[in-house]
Specification:
mainly beta, eleven-stranded antiparallel beta sheet, 11 strands
Length: 125
C-alpha cells in the first residue's frame, strides 16, 4: 500500500516553503484567493499579500508557476474532501500531513496540495 501512495517524509509547511516566491491560490469553504505570491512560510502560518493563512485549514492550495508538470507514476484516483467534492485526480505523492495531486480540467493541468485533515477517502479509478 505504501508503494501505491508514494509516501514522502515531508510536511505541508516544508512543501510550501519550496514554493516561496511563486503564485498560489488558497481555496477554503466559501473563500478563494486570487493568484498571489507566497511570501513567507512559518511554523504554522503562511503570508500572502501581508495576510496570514493557516494552510491546514484550507481545502486546497494550488501551486502555480510550475513550468513542467510532473506526471511520474501518477495514479488516477478520486479523492473525497470535507468540502463534499469527489475530485478526479492523479496522485503524485503523500506527505506526512498532505497529498499532492495533479488535477486536469479542460486540458488545463494544476498541481494542488490538499491537507490530510480535509481528505475523507481516496479510491483507485
Amino acid at each position: 500500500m505504501s508503494n501505491l501512495l508514494n509516501q514522502l517524509r515531508l510536511t505541508l509547511m516544508k512543501r510550501l516553503s519550496q514554493h516561496v516566491g511563486y503564485p498560489v491560490i488558497i481555496k477554503a469553504l466559501g473563500y478563494t484567493t486570487e493568484p498571489v505570491l507566497l511570501e513567507h512560510v512559518g511554523k504554522q502560518f503562511i503570508r500572502i499579500k501581508g495576510q496570514y493563512f493557516i494552510p491546514s485549514s484550507a481545502h486546497q492550495i494550488s501551486l502555480l508557476g510550475i513550468r513542467e508538470i510532473p506526471n511520474m507514476n501518477a495514479k488516477p484516483m478520486k479523492v473525497r474532501t470535507t468540502a463534499g467534492d469527489n475530485i478526479p485526480i492523479k496522485l503524485l505523492c503523500t506527505g506526512t500531513d498532505f497529498i499532492e495531486v495533479l488535477m486536469e480540467q479542460n486540458e488545463k493541468k494544476e498541481i494542488a496540495l490538499i491537507p490530510m485533515n480535509m481528505v475523507i477517502n481516496m479510491e483507485m479509478v
